[in-house]
Design a protein that fits this description.
CATH class of the largest domain: Alpha Beta
Structural class: alpha/beta
Shape: elongated
CATH architecture of the largest domain: 3-Layer(aba) Sandwich
Number of strands: 10
CATH topology of the largest domain: Rossmann fold
Order of helices and strands: EHEHHHEHEHHHEHEHEHHHEHEHHEH
Radius of gyration: 26 Å
Number of helices: 17
Oligomer: single chain
Number of domains: 2
Length: about 400
């Protein structure tokens, strides 16, 4: 999902540019004024609450506004993302939006600020006032509106500049010229959006083989906590020695091990296009950890794949692998194999339910040749990447 906030003072042309962006990127339009009017017209509970406040001359509270925005987001499921026009207007609302989007497993990707000189804004708004016969839009009123914008909204731009997602765009020129500048900025921000993939499947499902092939194809950094742990064990590092007893029994190692390994991989690839997580997270707690790690870096899980392979087939594959050079020491013990499969069912299956609720999971038939399974995965991955961007 790709979310944009379009900022600019009154008269900057946000409405016109918003319509063009919505069409180009298949976004849903969110303007607090518009959705408030929609709720009031529908006579919804939120609309009635807002109406009573407005009729008394008050300002609609952030609490009501955020509920209306959440409703709008949840009821628009066929779009690629959302365009926020003039929201958030204050730093408080910026924090509110951050929390709301976090709750909905997404984030703001790009804030575009249209920059127009004040004399140009005054001229545009005075001209608009004449055309629309708005006699209340006096020079004094227009100046006050611009002052209000400067005092309250410019700090919001600073908020997003600190996050590295605020872009200033020259708002003077023809509509097409300005739109081209905006789309250049949007496309630039798209290239900075990490694409993070999680690949699940029971032991013996082929996650390692398929994961490496997919990571290579899409130029993603491949992260297998199991492989990284085995390297630590082979090196005889402090972490390796501590993890060895867990791995040999087919148990899940303590979470702090995986956190250190993942953070190290991310830090050593600052120019990555994204990351491919093979078999991680394996528990609900680890799912929260991964969300936290990525959120810290202003990113999130883009899509999740689950290789569907029956238990009997997994056992057969692991048995065959135990007789090849690719064998692992835990492939030799039937009890450990069964324990690992049971662990997947009891501890990892709930993680699949977690991602299913977020509607970003794809179940893939894992039976067939490597090429057949790879083709199924790439078809779905192309779709997932398109939706993510």
């Amino acid at each position: 999902m790709y979310n944009i906030a379009l900022f600019g003072p009154p008269g900057a042309g946000k409405g016109t540019q918003s319509r063009k962006l919505i069409e180009k990127y298949n976004l849903a339009y969110i303007s607090t004024g518009d959705i408030l009017r929609e709720e009031i017209a529908e006579g919804s509970d939120l609309g009635l609450q807002a109406k009573s406040v407005i009729e008394m001359g008050g300002l609609v509270s952030d609490e009501i506004i955020v509920q209306i925005i959440e409703k709008k987001i949840k009821t628009n499921t066929e779009v690629n993302g959302f365009l926020f026009d003039g929201f958030p207007r204050t730093v408080v609302q910026a924090y509110i939006l951050e929390g709301l989007l976090l709750k909905l497993n997404t984030s703001l990707n790009c804030m575009v600020s249209l920059e127009v000189p004040q004399d140009e804004l005054m001229e545009r708004m005075q001209e608009r006032s004449k055309k629309e016969n708005r006699i209340d839009d006096t020079t004094e009123v227009i100046e006050n509106r611009l002052k209000e914008y400067k005092n309250k909204t410019i700090p919001v731009a600073e908020f997003y500049k600190e996050k590295g997602i605020c872009y200033s765009v020259d708002g003077v020129g023809t509509l097409d010229e300005i739109f081209e500048r905006i789309t250049n900025v949007v496309e630039q921000s798209l290239t900075k959006t990490w694409l993070n993939v999680v690949l699940f499947g029971p032991p013996g499902s082929g996650k390692g083989t398929q994961g490496k092939m997919l990571a290579d194809k899409y130029d993603l950094v491949y992260i297998s906590t199991g492989s990284l742990l085995r390297k630590e064990i082979e090196k005889g590092s402090e972490m390796g020695l501590a993890a060895k007893e867990y791995v040999e029994k087919g148990d899940i190692v303590p979470d702090e091990f995986a956190i250190k390994l993942i953070e190290k991989q991310i830090q050593t690839h600052p120019d990555a296009k994204g990351f491919f997580f093979k078999g991680y997270p394996r528990t609900i707690v680890q799912a929260y950890i991964l969300d936290g790690l990525l959120r810290k870096l202003n990113s999130s899980v883009s899509c999740v794949f689950n290789l569907d392979v029956p238990t009997l087939e997994s056992i057969k594959r692991l048995s065959v692998r135990s007789k090849t050079e690719k064998s692992r020491y835990y492939d030799m013990d039937t009890d450990v194999i069964i324990r690992r499969l049971e662990s997947f069912q009891t501890r990892t299956s709930p993680v699949l339910n977690y991602y299913e609720k977020q509607k970003n999971i794809y179940n893939i038939d894992g039976i067939g040749t490597e090429e057949e399974v790879f083709e199924r995965l790439t078809i779905k991955l192309e779709l997932a990447f398109k939706n993510a961007r």
